[in-house]
Amino acid sequence: MKNFHLIDHPLIQHKLTIMRRANTSSKDFRELLNEISMLMGYEITRELPLENVEIETPVARATMKRISGKKLAIVPILRAGLGMVDGLLSLVPVARVGHIGLYRDPETHQPHEYYCKLPPDISHRLVIVVDPMLATGGSASDAIRMLKDKGCTHIKLMCVVAAPEGVAKLTADHPDVEIYSAALDECLNDHAYIVPGLGDAGDRLYGTK
Ligand code: PRP
Ligand code: URA
Prior knowledge:
Elements: E1 4-6, H1 10-20, H2 26-44, E2 50-56, E3 61-67, E4 72-78, H3 85-91, E5 96-97, E6 99-104, E7 111-117, E8 126-130, E9 133-134, H4 138-149, E10 155-158, E11 161-162, H5 164-173, E12 178-181, E13 183-184, E14 187-188, E15 194-195, H6 201-206
Helix pairs in contact: 1-2, 2-3
């Protein structure tokens, strides 16, 4: 589990508890996911490299810091990952956004690709893949494989609720990818849903069930 980072700030835990409640509305679910993504983004960007820059303040010339190094790309896994994009963009407004569409077959639980549109220079960027749920890990693993096939070498995964099974698969398939999550839940049920989890994130986000 050395690649797994739990981001369990009290505000994040409190908001996630409300998201998990079965009677939380889609509107509140969306707003909370957005807020949690922003709070997690603050942590995930903590290690961005800085460089010195000379500036003039109204009072004096000074050497100050600015972010250097690779530019960022945010890649949501559709649909539910979309709910995490705006929170990150509010922190890094110049980030590019790519989209990967995957759905899980309800019987086999295997992911199927239906969409992929990425910034042309994605291989030069630090990529943050976002998806609230890491269940079997199949979707995140396939998305990261697609990004590596495009030449990406610096990838992080940001989710909200992870299952131990998903963390194990991702660590085995992509040991170079750091995983950030607001919770590590108990297990998967017979339908490969996370227990206790929060249900189907896409459906709860968009009110489709
Ligand atoms: C959900 C979720 C993840 C995936 C996680 O998406 O948003 O992408 O399942 O499961 P896994 O780790 O077992 O692959 P889903 O396939 O339900 O699509 P949706 O977001 O369009 O609802
Ligand atoms: N996808 C979800 O949206 N929820 C789960 O618990 C598992 C997969």
